[in-house]
Design goal:
eight-stranded parallel beta barrel; five-stranded antiparallel beta sheet; alpha/beta
């Protein structure tokens, strides 16, 4: 049986469409959005004809540039880990890698929802193929601060405050104390503390706060935004700071509220302001069956009717999208706030192809470029929301937000922009309805970021740094230059802080403030929330209006940083600073003397190998695109294809330069496979690797990522992962 078989395919011109995908679009989507089938498939075919050759040409340019860089490094060996930087930089200009910068400009994006244009706050990233996770992220706009504190290490386990199986009153008291200190800091009272408060009421549109026999008010009365219930005895007090809301929830009958002097049962924080529903890095979607799962969940979110039932605590629960939240404003009018995060959809980049549709342009059939397919399908799925037909709306401005990853410079952004034009024309949408998020995660994108944004200046709503993928590209681009520093030292190299600053500098320079997000990357340790609270304030302090978090709990906790930091004020101050140095960005993170001890080499190998295997085994065997994988010290790390790209390219680099041998690498892979098998022993669906290395698709794929790493385009992991999973599925069905 072959993945290219015409069994169960529907022919539409040059398109041979897998029947699973065709039936989904034809029977579920087109009738619901009211779009004509013939018009859609004819336009789809036309776009595929136009953009497939252009896509191939862009990929050929990537390959050509990489070959030129590889050869330059062979022709210009380093001296104690140093290159001839002046000639290197000139060479990059000569080959069109480092492009001249054009005149100044400002972006003109319009019809942008306030969650992107005006509100600084956390951004969740979630695999949209998993309906339960997708709904959790959508509903994470509001989160319980009490729950987020009680369930994480932000609250210490010391002095009898451990999180026991049943409710621990000592821990609960510590949670309440922490939350009231947060209120004191950001919603200060004219006198006293929230620990002294015994009640709330609203009189003539103003908040009165009782403290025993006396009353006080907010230091800044403008921070009172509304209430729930009766003015004389409200059940909720809505506060606002830095464009973010917090709701003090009051319930005398609640187990926590009954013991509180003011009967406060919880503090609800506006948390995940936006959420990226990811159809790329955190999902495994290698064929029509899996792509339909991605598309169907997004379609459900965009129509407001996605539901997911599951078993929890012996009971069946059904999750669906939260309604909006209704308050009474201080002037007595109704105030409605969104109950859900504003959703962005991450499409696939320009590289990958997918057998869901086969295309014949006269040179034999080939798989469709997945990014082209996504651009023509995902806006169709969003039509009802774009046109404002849903009760549970996503965009209130009639826009769709598409994040485009893994683009290499201005020409590739122009391609995406033109492709979005074609999708708008196909679907009868106004120009620039489809907004674009440009991920700055490839080296050639970074150094040409201003020119890249110029190519989409009328539709850009997002740029962000992605340190993980960016590091993978850093290593692959300069693979021949020499051995790299250890993975843990990457963030201390000259290029990294310059890259992070450059992204903010360019974003502010071209006018993203007030129109688009400037974002920062993921907190990858979901169980280490205290460390996140101690460090992640650096993201809003850097001028970033959003930063990625791995969970709804993480979003609630990280939201407190945006109460501490007024990002708009920070951005205004940063506009006058000197740009980061492009020379620093181009400084390759090489080691001058690779004199590590055998123990240090072994430790680096094992840590990389464990991360690779722990992620790949679930991806290939179970189709899980994002996993919490324990590292060598048993710290759970969120792994996706970006982290995999770093680990595999790092071993490849050390192997290429003789820091380690093939035998050492294979020995580490086999030993770590046994460790990973043990770590997954409690999973009944897990398929071990170490029992049969030769026939384990996952183990072979993990090894290929290292031993064939230099040959992978840009060091990407997708081609090998997709092929391994397709082979496994084909073998299982035969």
């Amino acid at each position: 049986m072959s993945q290219n078989s015409h069994t169960n395919r529907v022919q539409k011109g040059i398109l041979a469409i897998d029947k699973q995908l065709y039936d989904f679009i034809e029977n579920e989507v087109l009738p619901k959005v009211g779009f004509d089938s013939e018009r859609y498939w004819t336009g789809f075919e036309h776009a595929v004809k136009e953009f497939t050759p252009r896509n191939k040409a862009l990929l050929a340019t990537r390959d050509k540039i990489q070959q030129q860089i590889d050869q330059w490094h062979l022709d210009h060996p380093t001296n104690n880990g140093k290159i001839d930087f002046k000639s290197y930089k000139q060479f990059l200009k000569d080959i069109g890698y480092l492009l001249p910068e054009g005149e100044d400009f400002q972006v003109t994006t319009e019809n942008v929802d306030k969650e992107i244009a005006q509100i600084a706050g956390p951004q969740l990233v979630v695999p949209v193929r998993n309906a339960r996770y997708a709904l959790n992220a959508t509903n994470a706009r509001w989160g319980s601060l009490y729950d987020a504190l009680y369930g994480t290490d932000v609250i210490s386990d010391e002095n009898g405050q451990e999180a026991t199986g049943s409710y621990n009153p000592k821990r609960g008291a510590a949670v309440v104390s922490y939350a009231k200190a947060f209120l004191d800091e950001h919603f200060a009272l004219a006198s006293g503390s929230y620990t002294d408060v015994t009640g709330f009421k609203v009189v003539d549109g103003k908040l009165e706060i009782a403290q025993g026999e006396s009353t006080t008010a907010l230091q800044d009365p403008n921070k009172f935004a509304g209430y729930v219930g009766d003015a004389g005895s409200p059940t909720g007090i809505l506060l606002k700071n830095n464009n973010l809301h917090a709701e003090i929830q009051i319930d005398a009958s609640h187990p926590v509220g009954k013991d509180d002097p003011a009967h406060i049962k919880d503090v609800l924080l506006e948390s995940a302001i936006t959420a990226i529903q990811d159809g790329e890095d955190s999902v495994a979607a290698v064929d029509a069956e899996e792509k339909v799962e991605v598309y169907r969940n997004w379609f459900g979110l965009m129509n407001g009717d996605l539901q997911e039932s599951f078993e929890k605590g012996g009971k069946t629960q059904t999750r669906k999208q939260n309604p909006d939240r209704v308050y009474t404003a201080p002037d007595g009018s109704e105030l409605v706030l969104p109950g859900r995060a504003l959703l962005l959809m991450r499409n696939v980049g320009h590289l990958m192809q997918n057998p869901a549709i086969l295309v014949d342009l006269g040179e034999g059939e080939e798989q469709i470029f997945e990014g082209i397919m996504d651009a023509l399908v995902t806006p169709l799925l969003t039509l009802n929301d774009i046109k404002g037909k849903n009760e549970l709306s996503n965009s209130r401005t009639g826009s769709m937000y598409i994040v485009k990853p893994k683009m290499h410079g201005p020409d590739e952004v122009k391609f995406a922009n033109d492709l979005f034009n074609a999708a708008e024309d196909l679907l009868g949408l106004e120009r620039n309805t489809l907004k674009i998020g440009i991920m700055d995660e490839e080296r050639r994108m970074t150094v040409n970021l201003k020119e890249a944004i110029r190519q989409a200046k009328d539709r850009v709503i997002f740029i962000n740094t992605g340190f993980l993928d960016r590091t993978g590209d850093e290593m692959h681009t300069s693979m021949n230059a020499g051995p790299f520093v250890r993975k843990g030292q990457m963030k201390s190299q000259a290029w990294q802080p310059a890259y992070e600053q450059w992204n903010v500098d360019i974003g502010l320079e071209v006018g993203l403030q007030g129109r688009a997000q400037i974002g920062k990357g993921m907190w990858a340790k979901p169980d280490e929330m205290k460390e996140m609270m101690d460090t992640k304030a650096a993201h809003p302090q850097s001028g970033a209006s959003t930063a990625w978090v791995p969970s709804p709990t993480g979003a609630t906790l990280h939201s407190m940083h945006y109460h501490q930091v007024n990002v708009n004020d920070v951005q205004n101050k940063l506009k006058s600073r000197q740009r980061a140095s492009v020379d620093d960005i181009l400084t390759i993170p090489l080691i001058s003397d690779a004199n590590w001890t055998d123990q240090e080499k072994q430790q680096e190998l094992e840590n990389n190998a464990q991360g690779i295997l722990g992620y790949v085994v679930r991806w290939v065997n179970q189709g899980v695109g994002c996993s919490k994988v324990p590292d060598i010290n048993d710290v759970g790390l969120m792994e996706d294809r970006a982290t995999l790209r770093i680990s595999s390219q790092h071993i490849t680099n050390w192997l290429h330069h003789g820091v380690v041998s093939e035998e050492q690498v294979m020995d580490a892979m086999k030993r770590m496979a046994k460790v990973v098998d043990e770590q997954n022993a409690g999973d009944p669906d897990y398929q071990p690797m170490a029992t049969d290395f030769e026939h384990s698709y996952a183990f072979k794929a993990a090894c290929d990522l290292v031993f064939k790493g230099r040959a992978q385009p840009s060091g990407y992991t997708e081609p090998l992962l997709h092929q391994a999973r397709l082979d496994l599925k084909e073998n299982a069905s035969c």
